[in-house]
Fold these 4 entries.
Entry 1:
Amino acid sequence: MLDIYGEELISRYEHPHEKGKLDNASISMHEENVSCGDTITIYLKIKDGRVEDAKFDGNGCIISMGSADLLLEEIKGKSLSEIEKMGKEDLFKIIGIEPGPARLHCATLSLRALKKAVLAFENKEVDRETKEL
């Protein structure tokens, strides 16, 4: 059954590197996948327009939690403008799989929360692409 998921995704679900809360976060953002019940809160520490640290907390399936862990590790040190430009294809490269339509919202839950957090930090409106993740 687990063969349909990438090994790294499974490993990160079982042993996450980025799970936890940041007490000194610059911003946090909570998101839910109402269709399956997955929840996530992203915590970002931002300094000089870059992500200095990132953590997440939440509950969900292998895809949503594994994706969150891999994504947050990837974005450390990135500029806020780089994160704003990220889309589904960027996420699929990071997580190593392209989930089918039934699991797409599981995979993109953390990216949606991340982009909303960055936009909120910059006092920008959430764009249509982010809303549709």
Note: Helices lie at 7-14, 62-75, 80-85, 88-95, 104-121, 128-131.
Entry 2:
Amino acid sequence: MNSTDLSVLNVAVDWLKSCHPVAIATVVQTWGSSPRPIGSWLAIRADGQVTGSVSGGCVEDDLIRRVQTEILTKDLPEMVIYGVSQREAARFGLPCGGTLRLLVEPKPELAILEAILASISNHQITSRTVDLVTGKSTLEDANRNEPFICDERIMKTTYGPRWRMVIIGAGQLSLYTADFALASDFEVTIIDPREEYVEGINREQIQFIKGMPDDVLLDIGIDSHTAVVALTHDPKLDDMALMEALKSPAFYVGALGSRINTQKRKARLLEFDLSQEQIERLHGPVGLFIGALTPPEIAISILAEVISVKYGVPIPKKV
């Protein structure tokens, strides 16, 4: 779940706890260009307060009016379509004649939304199925590959924790990498046991943990939506972290170092309880080869490679 929709979920729960009538709109289908992907959320309060977006601002004003005057008085979800005709698309400012189909739920269930939040905080993936006939929702365990479904009977959406990047080391390169990761909507954790680096982490959005990387990785738990990047250039710290990361379900594991040093590191790791297959998961030298020289450029190359792996894009051979 990206940070925008997670924020919508948190706010909607707060509003419902405060006894405000709330409707939740979900993007269920788009035609043509669309600024918001399928599954995006918008929560609308009875007094017109909103959080989130379903169109980047094109239809929100009209949707708020419809929710206040019509939809909140109903009990069942309602399908709302914008941009059926070219004229209507132009009226609502939908780009390239696009069409937007939304499912609006006038009675979202607080207990269900709280359960989704709890599963996200526990790094679990959950699917919610909304019965369009009754308006009731059910939850079940899921995986990230389950498709979004919306037909005349149900809407099924998968929710999971944000993508996470765990960075080993708190040096200058780590901070640049953390900044680009935050901008790319990753949740960021930096691990470093060295006292001299503690004061350098002064960003509220970054979780800093002072401790031995291998121990901390075991404590925080590494799952399939986590990238681990070792950037201390100190084998005593990086290798210990890599031993745990390469055995974990992490979708990406990378380490700073030249090609020669990477081969030496792989040989060292073979001396521990790692298989050749696990060691070959290591991305090293870390980052796409773009000729990067400065810390910001190297950080960009790291994020480019992590994002490529995240979306299953083949990595060019490093020269």
Note: The longest helix spans residues 295-310.
Entry 3:
Amino acid sequence: MASRHIETWNQCLGVIKDNTSEESFDTWFRPIKPISLENDVLTIQVPSQFFYEWLEDKYIDLLKKTIKKVIGPFGKLEYSVLMDSSDKSVTIKMPSSDYVETKNPLGRPHSEIPSDAPINPFIIPGLKKLQIDPQLNENYTFDNFIEGDCNRVARQGGLEVAKNPGKTAFNPLLIYSSTGLGKTHLCHAIGLEVKRLHPEKTVLYVQAEQFINQYVTASRDKNLNNFVHFYQMIDVLIIDDIQFLAKKTMTQEAFFHIFNYLHQNNKQLVITSDKLPADLQDMEKRLLSRFIWGLTAELQMPDINTRLAILKHKLYTNGIVLSDEVVDYLATNIRTNVRELEGVLISLVAQASLNKKTITLDLAKQTIDRFIRSYVKEVSVEYIINIVCDYFNIPVDNLSLNTRKHQVVQTRQVAMYMAKKYSNASLASIGKQCGNKDHATVHHACKTVSDRLDTDKQFKRMLDDIEKKILG
């Protein structure tokens, strides 16, 4: 014969099933186990804190009405929440109908709660702070992240976030750029600075691909609740390369709930992407809308002064001495990204060391000449614009004119198309340099040119000529 608490819960399930969808019932109520029934208080066991919070948020009214109907007017509900995958659990009481006005899932009488203390429905008695590896690279600090016009907004935004995580308007902080411009460095710098200023905070840096793999494992092991619960315990969550979540519908769903929970509880989110949120494909709109709630900052190609500062800092920290003319040559000719700039410097120093040669300007030219021919012209939107405008015999300033003249419109569209194809700049950056247009205009221009290439042979020959001039 079934125990009284099991029979009572089965009666409750009968009521709940009639008032929920089959999918919701199977997901949120079948996993619950009745534990005991004493003094009209039914205790049920739920798999995780996240599970408990979801029930409290989505089904509180249904549960209260069901308990009153099955047990009686004095019926109450108590949760036993399993923490991690151990046998230990923490008990949380759902508010009785006497406390409808103020949600108090801790189940304590109002007299026990200081009148000036805010009630936090997500705090569970006995819950211990997680001790986890933040996965931060100690070498990527703000001290060696050289500031320039190309990254000032992102760097300053990162510093503000590190000083007051979750308490600024920069939540989330979304940093986007092409590869090699410092997104990952800045992420680690933010995390390290938070740990320095707020050692009590739980910080976690995770690459999106790692997050996806963890989700797949948790799903396979039927451990998704613990997966979500783990991430909801983080104070500062840093997700690198969020674009890899594209087409991962279920992973996006899990991240959506994690994002909401952290944001609502004033936890800090830092996200990086290779594109503006509006340009990310195959991502849920509700996620994209949340990505722009805070500060969206672009890391652009470093200008000559920033490249010089980066090189000089690298030389100083590594004890390398180069002549000013060699440093100037490197900074002037390597314009792809910071990673390539550092890579060429390392290669040059290694070659000189192995061959026991002095690093002269001639050696520098020999070492990077091939690299320059391959890449230098690919990344400069300004260079591409000058080539295209010269080809069509249109002054560069005319791209900013608000005109529908075919020659100007065509020149601007071709410049946008070529800049997208041969540079690492974002659509927003290209639009800004091509007449101060937005990313949507660039996207439309690229599609227009691409469609025309398929049908207009003369136009295709013209663009082939322009490409040859761009690539030298």
Note: Strands lie at 33-38, 41-46, 76-82, 89-93, 173-176, 203-207, 236-240, 268-273, 295-298.
Entry 4:
Amino acid sequence: MKYFILIAAVFFIGCGGEPNITDADLDGNVLFDPSLYSPEQFLISKSKPNPTEEEKQKAVIIVAHGYTATTFEWNEFKRYVDSTQADVLVSQVLLGGHGRTYQDFKNSSWRDWQASIIDEYQKLVQSGYRNISFAGSSTGGPLIVNLFAQSFFKNSIEPKHVFLIDPIIVPSNKSLSMIGIFGPMLGYIESGEMTAEERKHWYKFRPQETLQELQDIITITRKDLESGILFPNSTHVSIYKSLYDDVVDRVSAVMLYNGIETQKPEMKKVSLPHSGIHVITRLEGRANVTEQDRVLQKKVFDEMIQDLKSKQ
């Protein structure tokens, strides 16, 4: 049925048209991600470029958001870490091409998205940080996993821990696989219902070019997982996959767990929160949030912090 919905969309949206973007949308020329103006408030490489010997030993976690999102997706985690005085440094990366205009996003590739993750890691290493971890939500997951598939960390600082929050390897909506056929005719796809707050931090319109890039990175990662991806000896992996997430298929968690090879079996784990929220680590701006959602989010945050502290 979803295939027919996508095909029908061709006729309703038109052939390669441009969306009607307003000043209330991130896609326009007014709203931009705040990290572009004040990077020192988001990136540890900017706020602490010359760490003390003590700071060099602290746990630093680079957090990467998902497709069409911005640094907003990890604000709650950053505030929670600060409120608990966990002595963990959080570096919120803005994926390349994101947080800017629709045209900037349209022109970006998945390698552009990934480049900002690489850049922050390299700057932290150059500054002397030695205890570095990663967290990726949704598309941030395969962008990070791809680095391990490329043996990016060989002869460099091995990440201590990798947290994958609803990582997209297989989408729930299988029509994404047909974007290469119908994408040029569609031009773009409008996101589903969004709150006014979400429209400030997520793209309302998804250029077909970026959907093809999304399809490319998840296909590449899926094939790498089928062959097996060897993680460094000291790297632990935690996968969190909401049971009722309608964006990412549950098989994504299975493929990651089976495809990632760690030094010891106990160095990787999977958690399946009883939630229908895609990316439980972000609740702000959503239309309906329950107390159970908040409890689950706190549980995930506490586990992440515990793991970061225990691996120091």
Note: The two ends are 49 Å apart (CA to CA).
